[in-house]
Amino acid sequence: MATFKIYKLHFTAPLHISDQHEDLGNSQRTIQSDTLYAALMSCLAKSGESLPEDGDLGFTVSSLFPYFQKDVDSTPVYFLPIPMQARQANLPDASMAKKVKKVQWIDSALYSSVLSGDSLFDGTDKYIPYIQEGYLSACELPEDVNGSKEFVRSEVSQRVTLDSRTGEEDANPFYVDKILFRHHAGFYFMAEGDTALLEKALQLLSMEGIGTDRNVGYGFFEYVADTLSIDLPENANYQLSLSLFIPESSEQLKALMNSERVAYDFVRRGGWITTYPYTTLRKNAIYGFLPGSVFCKDANTAATVIGKIADLKPEADLGISHHIWRNGKAIMLPINLK
User: What is the pTM of this model?
Assistant: First the structure.
């Protein structure tokens, strides 16, 4: 049994999470670990904290995952990403394929079985009754007035822009996709390492907000620390990422990918520099593996955290006097694939 420290975020305002295209009309449904880490580091810098030269604050975080809670006094149900290998379902009944394909999250009560190598959708009906839209849970999720059990919902609203000086020019409408939570649900993340600086930064971040459109009141949250226990298998032959993962070297990546059963997805990270006066310049780009990716277990280390912090500072001499860190260290859980 492994026990992880977690932080539950209960949002008191709508949330918008931009993707790499910065499209206000489409919000992502989670925040990746590198974005969360960068926001925490920014808060520490604003508070006057001296930051380490290598960008390592002494802790590693997972990406944000959903949790459901009926009210503040009820027991929360924590969800974790479905391993990408498990998406390759073997179903004799083709009519179930669409239902199974929707599953993205598994509650922590079932996760130990998944990590131990129990096949989710192997032609039996064992887990089919637990499917509740995008969630696999032994806990019955309540329906809303429309019969949906989705507790992290998307809502598009219209806004307009006016001339900032006179307000007399024609209004230009645009749409914003905002994320709302039913009941007392929200997002949570795991943390490994020394969390003293994390908690100092999280206090400021909760008041500044996270995500896009914080200047109009989006992204504010309250938080509370908790723990989450998961039974981990012994002598596992693979490992599952809970964070955005950037390999330390090509040699490490080669060892992690040395199997036909490895399953993964990745995303490009980069974007604009946010420090004045360099806001018209782009960072270097790098690719990271998404949570839920499954790799071979690295024989060279028994650590639960692997990966590196990459510097995305442009190589050209543009006068930028500081590093631009992108944290690709990932919390890994052992998983058996049978």
Answer: 0.89
